[in-house]
Amino acid sequence: MKLLTRQDLQKERVNAINKIKKQNCRILICAGTGCLAGGSEKIYNKLKEMAKEVEGVTLEFAKEAAHVGVHPSGCHGFCEMGPLVRIEPWNYLYIKVKEEDCEEIFQKTVLRGEPVEHLMYHQEDNVYQEQESIPFYAKQTRLVLKNCGHINAEDIDEYIAAGGYEALEKALFEMKPDDVIAQITESNLRGRGGGGFQTGYKWKQVARQQEKIRYVVCNGDEGDPGAFMDRSVMEGDPHKMLEGMAIAAYAVGAQEGYIYVRAEYPLAIKRLKMAIKQAEEFGLLGEDILGSGFNFTIHINRGAGAFVCGEGSALTASIEGERGMPRTKPPRTVEQGLFAKPTVLNNVETYANVPMIITNGASWYHEIGTQGSPGTKAFAITGSVNNTGLIEVPMGTTLREIVYDIGGGVKNDAAFKAVQIGGPSGGCLVSDNLDVKLDFDSLTKLGAMIGSGGLVVMDEGTCMVEVARFFMNFTQNESCGKCVPCREGTKRMLEILERIVAGNGTLEDLDLLEELGEAITATSLCGLGKSAALPVLSTLKNFRKEYEEHVVDKRCRTGNCQAMIRFIIQPEACKGCSKCARNCPVNAISGKVKEPFVINTETCIKCGACIDNCPFGAIYTEN
Amino acid sequence: MLEQSYYSKADEIISQHGRTQKALIPIIQDIQSCYRYLPAELLSYVAKQLGINEAKAYSVATFYENFSFEAKGKYVIRVCDGTACHVRKSTLILDKLYKELNLSKEKHTTEDMLFTLETVSCLGACGLAPVLTVNDEVHAAMTPEKVSALIAKLKEEEQ
């Protein structure tokens, strides 16, 4: 059914709202990647089947005959507690739901409106019935993720009922392209992909180019390990992003758009394809949208496993069918981007911010967040933290609020050590930084960056040197090899770090790491290389002592660095039976029978065979 | 030389995407998802059909990590070694799989062509770390014990 005019869309919105109002009970089952892995599809099928049986029957809690809506929703964000089921109108959130629980949910909640308490979130004797009252949600400001988990991600009508495509409508019929750009510029919306570049400025640059063919590209190549906010938007509220792209296209005069999604996100690709198809059927994408004369179509490109394609010029090269390698700039993407035409390139979360700014205005947007970085930011909070998941908070929220209030503190009550922010291109924040207000500028000052928004919490048991090695290994692997500083530099830095964790490092290595890191940062071609050394430089700055222990004392206080573990025989407990020596594969154990044996740490390969074989428990390890 | 059916399949895929360079990656992606690897002969064939240089097509296919010229096992197991999984000890999961399947860093596929083991830098399911996927199906919060059970189950299904 094609909507030909603005009035058609408004009518459709009324219909869509009525359709939802009719459902006196709505069951939203999280169908994000996380909950699906936990078996939410079975729960969906079962509840859907049960709902059929009561269709049109009068329920105890409702005056009218029942219309139970059972929907697969996008990610609710509380992945640790999945599979999640939300039931409206009571807004109950059931956690860790199993297929066996469906019967009880149905009998109690759906038929009688009563809560099933044992499926609700508990914390220190408190039971949280409503989703919004759970501390994890209560402290958040969900704007970009507002619909995620609350609407059926596969039904365009649900998005329209939630106010979807209102912004596109407003832009097309009440604003000139320049007004749209002015509004976005005034809002000071900054790129959520990591750089924090001003979106409005980008759009303005594209709009003023001589060349008339322009493109709008969405960067959904969320490659930073530990980040999945873009995935959740694409899976849970795909239309919001499409609407943002359409508004951008209208503003800069583009007719074609491309979404580049990483291949590791098959569900996001499926939902986006579905959303594009529905939007085309409704006439919200395609030719002469709502009779305004504006044309816009969107294509999807799947990534093929190259992290560097998150970089603008590499991404456009990849869409063109080339090797995804960055090129020297200028010309910049806004001048010569995709197919050498002026191109707006923003990431998923940035586009998802656009509709609400157009609907509510720039001054509304400035009320949220900090002066330099208005709005909210979605963070993926993972690692050693109690409540892992996806959150959204106003810019300027402190790390303490995120880790302790929302994240529920460090797992197993371990001591907080650091947070790695921004993945392999970011830095670490330590306990001294817990009260810093997080926004683009404050983090740059600390030698870190927001990046895409991955927050990995690390406790006392994590070795920072090993973490730095891990990131360098990642970056080195993903370096495209075009420029020498990145190709060679990351390789050498990795070699040094591997040497250190193997217990063969020297103090000079630390200085060399710093020197190399600074050189790579200063001379690399693209963002990947420029930020490659950041995890090393920032851990060196904050945890130099730990590095020194590795190189001087040959000791890793966490025991993470396998090579530094020492196997020791306790002389008092050793009976001198020689069983360990006989089982040692490298003959590192020696001694006289009936006298305590000794392990030669130089030869020992730390296989643990001696510990397994000692009948007296006389062998122990020391970090 | 491959069987004729491979070339007909390639023709079918090419016709869906068009004969332009920008279609190269989508075409070879589709071929790969069809056969679970990219037969080198088909890459040359596609290059010819698209009117691009064979060397160029080869350079593109080798640049991206997802393309493989080697046939893969029926079950492709991808262990996530992203930051969140790494912090939650994904290395133990990987080691267990190496042992269970008798594979190594150099040898990715079992002799019986049943299993291929790969690592991936992030699957974006960090909340459920450590995770792995078997042919795109996500298995969450893995432990070495769960790995053994999973492999046993897959092997059983084969018999």
UniProtKB/TrEMBL annotation, chain A:
One of its GO terms (molecular function) is metal ion binding. Residues 565-594, 595-623 form the 4Fe-4S ferredoxin-type domain. InterPro entries: 4Fe4S_Fe-S-bd, 4Fe4S_Fe_S_CS, NADH-UbQ_OxRdtase_51kDa_CS, Nuo51_FMN-bd, Nuo51_FMN-bd_sf, Nuop51_4Fe4S-bd, Nuop51_4Fe4S-bd_sf, Soluble_ligand-bd. Keywords: 4Fe-4S, Iron, Iron-sulfur, Metal-binding. It comes from the Bacteria. The keyword Secreted does not apply. Belongs to the complex I 51 kDa subunit family. This is NADH-quinone oxidoreductase subunit NuoF. It comes from Candidatus Galacturonatibacter soehngenii.
UniProtKB/TrEMBL annotation, chain B:
[2Fe-2S] cluster binds at C80, C85, C122, C126. InterPro entries: NADP_DH_HndA-like (IPR028431), NuoE-like (IPR002023), NuoE_dom (IPR042128), NuoE_N (IPR041921), Thioredoxin-like_sf (IPR036249). Binds 1 [2Fe-2S] cluster. GO terms for molecular function: 2 iron, 2 sulfur cluster binding; metal ion binding; oxidoreductase activity. Keywords: 2Fe-2S, Iron, Iron-sulfur, Metal-binding. The keyword Metal-binding applies. Its cofactor is [2Fe-2S] cluster. This is NAD(P)H-dependent oxidoreductase subunit E. It comes from Candidatus Galacturonatibacter soehngenii.
